[in-house]
Amino acid sequence: MSLEKWSAIASVGLFAMFVGEMISIYYFMMDTPSNLEFAVAFEPAPKILQFISIGVAPASILAALSFILSRRYGSKPIGSMIIAGGIILLIGMAYCYTLLDKLTPTYIVDTVIITPLLFMGVSIPVMVFGVILFRINKKRPKKEYF
């Protein structure tokens, strides 16, 4: 397979990993063990920023790379993988946003509230770029008559 296919596959995997990390940290903030408060102080903002830097930022870069590499000829498989990554991100962040009401009040900070909304917004352009790859037709070579 070519480089653009591998980067699209990696971007889908990183989008899914980021959604899984965010859902797991939101579940952790819902059910905090009672002995955790005395042993370790947990701050959600640095952990979420870490998840962003190892998950969704590289995924977005890889999706953009696969788009740039295949924009001249268009590719339905690559476009569908980019769209799938955007859908995974949109659904996962929408689910995280529904969990905000159930979080422990001490963990509700700006980063926890803004992150799902921000990446729901990021998922829409990702899906648009995938749709653009669907619409691009391969250029036919010009016939030489003489």
UniProtKB/TrEMBL annotation:
It comes from the Archaea. Keywords: Membrane, Transmembrane, Transmembrane helix. The chain crosses the membrane at residues 7-28, 48-69, 81-100, 112-134. This is Uncharacterized protein. It comes from Candidatus Nitrosarchaeum limnium BG20.
